[in-house]
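--- STAGE predict ---
source: upstream dedup step, 1 unique chain passed
mode: sequence only
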Amino acid sequence: MDKRVCLNCGKPIQGRLDKKFCDDSCRNTFNNRQNASSVNLARNINNTLKRNRNILEAIIPENAELAKTTRERLVQAGFNFRYFTHIYQNKKGNCYRYCYDFGYLELEGEWFLVVREKDF
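--- STAGE serialize ---
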């Protein structure tokens, strides 16, 4: 009969025939390692989306619904234009990109209109 060993640490396993790990700690460590890359990717994207949202929120004055800003100001604050949660197209055909409840519309030149979603 073959000796069974823990998939995480390689120690001999005793007990049930279908047992793969020597204890809960090894099972958790193994599974966390297996899922780390996909979890880290999602975490990094969500952190970028939250940062983008906070940058947009900081641009709009309190009790206001919108404000204008420049691309330079957004870039200097660390805004990443590759990540947004959804797009809204109004009746005029303008496409607003949103980071959760704050959106932006690219205007002429290097200007952007930043808006707060009213439905949230």
